[in-house]
Design brief:
Length: 216
């Protein structure tokens, strides 16, 4: 019987050990991706006699951590100035994009909602005035008031302009701050709370637009 040399024997033992342990090595986990899910269905209302002014909704502005795909949270009971991120959870797109998509779906039930490119292709002379809604996302995070209780907080800065053939007219500016209750104290609960808060912000903006006097 041929004997193995010490070096070959050591190499064989190491390879055998790695092969036996390979089934116990944890593979890197991919982060869980979240979006805001489908919007809730609502009853379709009859067309109004006076169609509402079309709305241009450009990309929402944001800076810092809000312009990434991280799911963010704060521990208000510990240090509410520290913005943290879940390590194994991500948004499917940066929050400004998701919020804009959600707002377009919600506001589009009452009036045409256009991008800047779509509005540029329109015949402004025949269409008349348009609303231009500029938004800045200032807060979009899950806030823990205790280890077991949290909420989703969304803050937006909104500026509404009327665009006509003669230029732009400022119609109003306001801050929008809304919250949604998180059903669970984890990333999934935070996502649902932030989705509810975004829907509440859309309802707030829709009511504001209905109260604005149409430009002449």
């Amino acid at each position: 019987m041929t004997r193995m040399r010490p070096l070959a024997l050591a190499t064989f033992a190491a390879l055998s050990l790695l092969a036996g342990c390979s089934g116990f090595i944890d593979k890197p986990q991919r982060p869980v991706l979240f979006d805001m899910g489908p919007t809730q269905r609502v009853a379709v209302q009859a067309p109004q006699a006076d169609p509402r002014v079309p709305l241009i909704l450009p990309d929402i502005e944001a800076s810092g951590a809000l312009d990434s795909s991280a799911v963010l949270y704060r521990l208000a009971y510990s240090d509410d100035h520290e913005l943290r991120a879940y390590s194994q959870s991500r948004w499917s797109a940066p929050p400004p994009q998701l919020v804009r998509q959600r707002l377009r779906e919600q506001l589009g039930r009452e009036r045409p909602v256009l991008t800047l490119d779509e509005s540029a292709a329109l015949d402004r002379q025949n269409l008349g005035a348009l609303y231009l809604l500029r938004l800045e996302l200032e807060e979009f995070a899950q806030v823990f008031d205790s280890a077991s209780r949290s909420r989703g907080v969304v803050r937006l800065r909104a500026t509404l302009l009327a665009t006509t053939g003669s230029g732009e007219q400022l119609l109003g500016q306001r801050s929008i701050s809304v919250e949604g209750v998180a059903p669970t104290a984890d990333a999934s609960g935070g996502v649902r709370a932030l989705t509810a808060a975004t829907d509440a912000a859309a309802a707030d903006i829709g009511q504001w637009l209905r109260q604005v006097r149409q430009p002449r």
